[in-house]
Amino acid sequence: PNVRSPPMYTMSPSGGHSYGHSHGNSFNSNNHLSRRKDWMADVEETIKRIQTHKGVLGVVVVNSSGAAIKSTLDAEQTAKYSGLLTQLTGKARSIIRELDATNDLTFVRIRSKKHEIMIAPDKDYILIVIQDPNNEQ
What we know:
By secondary structure, this protein is an alpha+beta fold. 34% of the residues lie in helices and 23% in strands. Residues 1-27 have low confidence and may be disordered.
């Protein structure tokens, strides 16, 4: 079946909406902007690829301060998932490091009756995928 994916919702690091217009970047380096553009293109491609998997309900990319950078969810759901799961990821990372200072968190998977949430934290960003566990391949 041909499934229509939800529109891509973009937020600036400050939490404001972005529709592809420049909002006064504090960096003047064209090289920095070029790298950021390439990185954002990679992020969009990754999100599109993840969305092709059966059961995926949404994908959110969050920066290290908890602000959503990209999301396929609406603004309310994006804020809810990014805020709560950033806190959870921070707590989980703290627990892992307290148990073993040489270790670090690499992945969190939470499964409930209705949803499965997968969290892949990185140094600067967190990838969050929400899916319906009852609609898997």
